[in-house]
């Protein structure tokens, strides 16, 4: 190795210590592989000179036969560590010859190291009698400084060692597995494979590995994009790609893990197995990726999870599992028809295996959302959702989905805020990567007026599912409830730019415009429903906007049309009618209607405390009575 291996070198904001084999950038240590460190040291000792490739290989790999590709890869790694991304910077390529270090290098030999801490001139020239005492004090300070430096070195060494408490969090996206059967009816299987890999990898070690949720990655199924764009849009460092082909006898799966910063294949494998081996293949892929990411993950957590998954898999018959995958496939469509198909498939999975906890959890998720997405009375499905969630937890208390569903029931149907928070916290504790639990918990917090916590929780959901329209919309809803109207407007506009048909975002946008006093903009948004969707509900929204705007005649006209159009409205018209009543000053009608929908567990009830739309009613004793019942967890009559 170079003759000045005892030296210190400074260049730019970097300092390399050859003896301690450390590279610092300011106060931070820069992690380098041993060969990258040796390569940098060779270049630093010959600044401005072209170091031939053969010379570099002899110095860094003295006892090994290596090819030029080893040098090229090491230089690439080194440039990345130094923040150099192009052929400009510290290390320049000399075509056909080698490399040259172009920075200003300041070598500081170890023997000259005391100059790094020069003594003040006064210490050598001060003739005063207490010079010795001051020298002692300064010597003590110097010793303390050295001690601090040693502690920093120890801390640096600990930082370089891969231990779970100090690692950064890596983000990974499981891109949609391709269905190579040519049969669209098998999409549920390839999508199910995607979702299962997200679930298994997301639970490997959530503290150190974050996995993007299903909603965001499935957008790339119909709209594939270059990997560098995926990395930017999702904020991930790794991607898992794959394909599946299944017939009655065989199962063929390909999978590859890609590091996105340089688009290199970290790991790849093909599986050709019996059609019954799907769960085993999923576990093998998960374990292989865990092995590749070992420096990042906590091995104890990975081992415990693998044991739990293996035990759970043994209790999942193939037919039941297939129905479960179909159920999740239809559940993710978030439509009335999709929910019904999901419920049917989850029930068939349970019929095949009455002890299949995940199928019960899926059924609880389905029934829990049917009331809010399809305007079905809560009394019809919420009790079924509760029964399914409780059955799932009696079979496997570690299912985060079941705990989150139970929390949703507690807040939306029971108004049991204490149980809801306990179950949300338990769900997040069991699966910190479950974006939906963070999303629903954030919504819960906003209804309680705990907006800082709500926004923080919503940000966690958005990090895990950055392209999800419902998570993004719920973030806008929290901003609206927190009376940050301009931010809510910007958030909802972003959602509608992605999907103009996402009605929930448009409803929150109209409310935000109204509360911000931007009535023409709010009225313009109602035109979307009139011209493109032809929904009778547009007249209800117009009545709300005109009423808040103070244009009473137009509000009354719109309200009359809306009331005559109930038979053409595919949803429950009463939440929109309530807005129109409040805006047109019909307080008595609004209170009576609110009392009715409170008794029926309407999903608009939990927002009574924080929704600004109810401000005109807050001085009414009847409203205050309803609010007190809600906050105390009083169960509505007929529950």
Characterization of the model:
- The N terminus is likely disordered.
- The strands form three sheets. Strands 9, 10, 11, 12, 13 and 14 form a six-stranded mixed sheet that branches. A five-stranded antiparallel sheet has the order 4-3-2-1-8. The protein has a three-stranded antiparallel sheet with strand order 5-7-6.
- Strand 3 and strand 4 form a beta hairpin.
- It has 639 residues and is α+β, with helices and mostly antiparallel strands.
- 58% of the residues lie in helices and 11% in strands.
SSE layout and pairing:
Layout: E1 8-11, E2 14-17, E3 22-25, E4 28-29, H1 34-44, E5 50-52, H2 53-60, H3 68-81, E6 91-94, E7 98-101, E8 106-108, H4 121-125, H5 131-160, E9 170-174, E10 178-179, H6 187-202, E11 209-211, H7 214-217, H8 219-222, H9 227-234, E12 238-246, E13 250-259, E14 264-274, H10 278-292, H11 299-314, H12 318-331, H13 336-352, H14 357-373, H15 378-395, H16 400-414, H17 417-430, H18 435-447, H19 451-464, H20 469-481, H21 485-498, H22 503-515, H23 519-533, H24 537-549, H25 552-564, H26 574-583, H27 587-599, H28 621-631
Parallel strand pairs: 9-11, 9-12, 10-12
Antiparallel strand pairs: 1-2, 1-8, 2-3, 3-4, 5-7, 6-7, 12-13, 13-14
